[in-house]
Amino acid sequence: MTVRRRSRRGAVLLAAVAGVVALLAGCQASAEPGKKPASLTEVTDFGKNPGGLRMYEYVPNSAGARPPVLVAIHQCTGSASGFHAGTAFAQLADRYGFIVVYPDANSEGQCFDSASSQALKRDGDSDPTSIVSMVEYAEEHHGADAGRVYVTGASSGANMTNVLLADHPDLFKAGSVFMGVPFGCFPVDDYGSDGWEECSSGRHTETPRKWGDLVRDAYPGYRGARPRVQLWHGTEDDILNHKNLGEEIKQWTDVLGVSQEPVLTDKPKPGWTRTRYDDDGEQPPLEVISVEGGRHDFPNSGMEAMAIAFLGLDRSDDQG
After folding, report:
1. In a domain, 114, yes or no
2. Is 155 a catalytic residue?
3. What range does the domain containing 142 cover?
4. 1 assigned to some structural domain
5. How far apart are CA 172 and CA 174, in angstroms?
6. What per-residue confidence (pLDDT) applies to 81?
7. Disulfide check for 158: which of 79, 118, 166, 177 has CB 3.0–4.6 Å away?
8. pTM to 2 decimals?
9. Is residue 25 in a domain?
10. Catalytic residue among 126, 155, 156, 200
11. How far apart are CA 151 and CA 140, in angstroms?
12. Residue 145 above 50 pLDDT?
């Protein structure tokens, strides 16, 4: 019995060592011999840039011949480098071989323009047009797959994510929105500073049709497919009230042409309520995660990996 017990311990030890070796090999898989590890790099002169933004990119050594692109957009007071360092998107890019583009805001408070009349229309003279130029740069200079372009962002970056999905539904295949407000919630040309308070507090409510029309008016005449959308919000968000999540659901169900009644409700983690609309699979038209007790500090706790799975960036060929 003693010999048998030691043998089992030895087997466990060998298995643990093998696991560590495999983990180290996986971490180094993106770095080919003779290549430096990937790092965040600024790109200048990337194209039309009416917003005066800065562009940073992370191109992992694991990127293939036609890598997908994820645009990852920081919050107010944030930065491209901070969002790169403070989220797991770069590590996930190493694992799955996609490029990450990090826009950097150029405004007081480091917020993106997701509210002006120029931002709320296709090809306006503002930040969304600058970000589209960054995507086009990645396609031209890295051979990125134009059919697999995605966007995510937090707070101000979440609002910009909604704007990009509305302005450029033909460019972005899907988006993941962390703590945002509906597209057109606080157009500064109409409301000024008062509009921000109405929107951020969750008091700006509209019918689904009105919210949907705001999105459709961003690109009049567009009849193509609409990007899939994932929405995240915490119930204790004291910056952008959780009520905005309900308004976003009204907006995107109308735009996507699906019922406001979910076909699936579950809890992927304790306190996380996930609802899926129209399709109960992993890539429905709309997926919503409400986090009980969550504050204005997303993404965290593995949210990035769930976002990547919804977008399809954990697959070699996303069919969703």
Report:
1. yes
2. yes
3. 39-311
4. no
5. 6
6. 98
7. 177
8. 0.89
9. no
10. 155
11. 18
12. yes
